[in-house]
Amino acid sequence: MRILVTGGAGFLGSNLCTRLINDGHEVVCLDNFFTGRKANIAHLLGNPRFELVRHDVIDPFKFEVDQIYNLACPASPPHYQYNPIKTTKTSVMGAINCLGLAKRVKARVFQASTSEVYGDPQVHPQPEEYWGNVNPIGKRSCYDEGKRCAETLFFDYHRENKVDIRVIRIFNTYGPHMLSNDGRVVSNFIVQALSGEDITIYGDGSQTRSFCYVDDLIEGFVRFMDQTEIVGPMNCGNPGEFTMLQLAEAVLREVGGKSKIVHKPLPADDPKQRKPDISLARRVLKWEPQIPLEEGLRRTIAYFRTQA
Ligand code: NAD
Ligand code: UDP
């Protein structure tokens, strides 16, 4: 198949492009390089089945493709809050442009939605039926509400225009090709531990997240995209739940060194707990994560050691 991956030079996008090329597909990678980099896809550039296009998803684009994976959008809080209006535009206009293209060329289109649509959840763990608890006017809203609106657009194009959609809600994922200055917690802790700097825990560190290793997530993406039983929304993530304090201790155990844990103020609207209910993915895709946190951290630490 010919497959378009928007945001293909980013963390998840580059891992997805590699997987699709290895599966024998032709891949068009579209990216504006806001948080993506050529280094993430350098190993694919000489491949005749791989094409790189510098383009912004808020402007329309045309490609003859069979599938579209829409991943373009900064995902780390410091990056998506850097230009919040652009973040909302990227989610909303990006969705409209992908859906318009999918409608014209009859491609199946995948939306990388997020656990952030659940906001600071009052239901735990979060099943797909939960509507969420999102502040519409806070600092995280440009991302959360942009992604919620994108989901709305996907389902309206599906109902009104019979566009063949797949909507996945991704929970915190980590692994090789994250930027060292990405700002998300796993890369921050690893980079800090490797350079002997203080490990910065925001708040008291009792808030929880569930961390999925990237290879597990990408396997979920491909299985979800290639089945015809459900269109989503479907949660994808690792249900293992850890406090930020436990994560810091796990990173320190793996890296060793002399970093100390320090506490910094908790950002506004920071969700207190998060853990996916993945019963749907288990049932339909026969999918569940295979790589435990310690193993995933070991692989990610090995990657960051090569980035020094
Ligand atoms: P990332 O920041 O590494 O990658 C995003 C990519 O999109 C980058 O290559 C960036 O340059 C590109 N991009 C941003 N704005 C663009 C625009 N206007 N036009 C074209 N390209 C643009 O983030 P990631 O972790 O790889 O996330 C990929 C997708 O998955 C995002 O949509 C994100 O919301 C979603 N997601 C990720 C996670 C996670 O834990 N990694 C969790 C939930 C959802
Ligand atoms: N966090 C932290 N130290 C850091 C970066 C993040 O303690 O250096 C916390 C953050 O406040 C949040 C959790 O780690 O509670 C996950 O943050 P991240 O930005 O990775 O993802 P998100 O909040 O979007 O789930």
UniProtKB/TrEMBL annotation:
<dbReference type="Pfam" id="PF01370">
    <property type="entry name" value="Epimerase"/>
</dbReference>
<dbReference type="GO" id="GO:0070403">
    <property type="term" value="F:NAD+ binding"/>
</dbReference>
<dbReference type="GO" id="GO:0005737">
    <property type="term" value="C:cytoplasm"/>
</dbReference>
<dbReference type="GO" id="GO:0033320">
    <property type="term" value="P:UDP-D-xylose biosynthetic process"/>
</dbReference>
<keyword id="KW-0456">Lyase</keyword>
<keyword id="KW-0520">NAD</keyword>
<keyword id="KW-0210">Decarboxylase</keyword>
<keyword id="KW-0963">Cytoplasm</keyword>
<dbReference type="InterPro" id="IPR001509">
    <property type="entry name" value="Epimerase_deHydtase"/>
</dbReference>
<dbReference type="GO" id="GO:0048040">
    <property type="term" value="F:UDP-glucuronate decarboxylase activity"/>
</dbReference>
<dbReference type="InterPro" id="IPR036291">
    <property type="entry name" value="NAD(P)-bd_dom_sf"/>
</dbReference>
<dbReference type="GO" id="GO:0042732">
    <property type="term" value="P:D-xylose metabolic process"/>
</dbReference>
<dbReference type="InterPro" id="IPR044516">
    <property type="entry name" value="UXS-like"/>
</dbReference>
<feature type="domain" description="NAD-dependent epimerase/dehydratase">
    <location>
        <begin position="3"/>
        <end position="229"/>
    </location>
</feature>
<protein>
    <submittedName>
        <fullName>NAD-dependent dehydratase</fullName>
    </submittedName>
</protein>
